[in-house]
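Q: How do we represent a protein-ligand complex in a form that can be generated token by token?
A: Start from the inputs.
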Amino acid sequence: MTEIRVGHLYPEYLNIYADRGNIAVFANRARWRGIGLQVEAIGPGDELRPGVHDLLYIGGGQDREQALIAPDLAAKGDAIREAVDAGAALLAVCGGYQLLGGFYRDRSGAELPGAGLFPLHTVAGERRMIGDCLLECELEPGVKRTLAGFENHAGITRLDKGAEPLGRVVAGFGNDGESGVEGCRTGTAIGTYLHGPLLPRNPWLADWLLAHALTHRLGETPELAELPEKLEREAHLVSAARARARGGRY
Ligand code: GLN
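Then emit the structure tokens for the protein with glutamine bound:
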């Protein structure tokens, strides 16, 4: 049986708003297609060997937890970039997304080093950006899809010139509450502020990442069998409606 190897970065520190639930979605959508998923927790002091994992995942967290792991994560920056350059898929949520940029200046004014995967930096603002958020994404040319989730961040993220956002904000705050874009994408790596967890209500993104992880494992792009998505679609519509109704308001 084909097995996808997942590296879960700092699960004991960065896991709020049920971000760990994203791993369960990867596991179930793989299992329903007869594919295994092996998850290795990677914590402070653990080595990250490029090429070992097909999929890297990091969740969100409060400033306190981010400060505890930021230097260790920054020291893994080269290995993470090498892994993604070699085709490993990556999903980073909120606090983890911020720390995969250049730096995060938190609410205390402390500048936490970033791993330098995403061309961006983040500075915590006075007001938190909280609520449901709806994006329009186009990860494949001509294929537009919506992404619905929940955001809660003080961080104001600025993308470097030429950086590719994950999507256009339809409703919500997004990276900074003004630029109209959310997240960042570099190759097979996706960064976003969207919690929820994100993937149960957006299975297409889980499949996009699984397909890239399988390509990394197998050396060829697999055809993923379609799965029934009635509940997922309903959850997406509810979240999207909440975002349209209330998203992006302090
Ligand atoms: N601590 C960061 C912020 O406030 C990230 C929060 C999170 O992961 N939800 O912006």
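The chain has a mean pLDDT of 96. Helices lie at 21-31, 63-75, 77-85, 95-99, 203-218, 230-246.
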